[in-house]
Specification:
Layout (H helix, E strand, L loop, with lengths): L5 E5 L6 H10 L3 E6 L5 H4 L3 E5 L5 H8 L4 E4 L11 H15 L3 E7 L11 H13 L1 H15 L4 E7 L1 E3 L8 E3 L7 E3 H11 L11 E3 L1
Parallel strand pairs: 1-2, 1-4, 2-3, 4-5, 5-6, 7-9
Antiparallel strand pairs: 8-10
Helix pairs in contact: 1-7, 3-4, 4-6, 5-6
Protein name: NADH-flavin reductase
Pfam families: NAD_binding_10
GO molecular function: oxidoreductase activity, acting on the CH-NH group of donors, NAD or NADP as acceptor
Length: about 210
């Protein structure tokens, strides 16, 4: 596909997603967002295009990705519904292949273990507790991980600690082996994520970031 400055963002109404949209606009990108309910976002900024629909619907994802050069997935889990993470990523990767889009960035959690991790004991315990108390969620997360790792796109999975509201402190710690801190302000997530669109530093890798 032709290179464009338009990116697709899923989960744009979430704690991390809403800051991502603003950061992308500030960096000169046009943004397509997916929402389940109509909003007045388009009226506020002409560089935002809103697609109304459900991320579990493949045709909706096709519409969202049309004309884009990168995809950022910050989708959250709907309340009282089956886990959607692997289904959404599967749809995204299939639509990316159709549209010849190569760059995929997924926001995930620090409880996700990948080969090469060297987590401290406290973080190992945390990951184990997630498996014990949220087994279905973690099963879906690992299914999603496998789907991504088996794909041919230039993917990055960014693993986060506890996310708090804030404008950001400008200090981001990064690691490929362990979570360097216990929390991060959502204002610090966005600059890191948007920077990855045109960076190959973490392609096919799963960095941890924190304050």
């Amino acid at each position: 596909m032709e290179s464009t400055n338009k990116i697709a963002i899923l989960g744009a109404n979430g704690k991390a997603g809403k800051i991502l949209v603003n950061e992308a606009l500030e960096k000169g990108y046009q943004v397509k967002i997916l929402t389940r309910n109509s909003t007045n976002t388009e009226k506020i900024n002409k560089n935002i295009e809103t697609i109304i629909g459900d991320a579990r619907n493949f045709s909706t994802i096709q519409d969202l990705l049309q004309g884009c050069s990168a995809v950022i997935n910050a989708v959250g889990q709907p309340k009282n519904e089956s886990y959607i993470f692997s289904t959404v990523t599967k749809h995204i990767l299939e639509a990316m292949k159709e549209s010849k889009i190569k760059r995929y960035i997924l926001i995930s959690g620090g409880s996700l273990n990948v080969t090469g991790d060297q987590k401290r004991i406290v973080n190992k315990i945390g990951a184990t507790l997630f498996k014990l108390f949220l087994p279905k969620m973690m099963q879906d997360k690992y299914k999603e991980l496998q789907i991504i790792q088996n794909s041919e796109v230039d993917w990055t999975i960014v693993r986060l600690p506890f996310v708090i509201e804030g404008n950001g402190i400008g200090n981001i710690k990064e690691s490929l082996v362990d979570m360097p801190g216990i929390k991060i302000q959502n204002g610090d997530i966005a600059p890191f994520i948007i920077k990855q669109i045109n960076s190959d530093r973490y392609v096919r890798k799963c960095p941890f970031i924190s304050n």
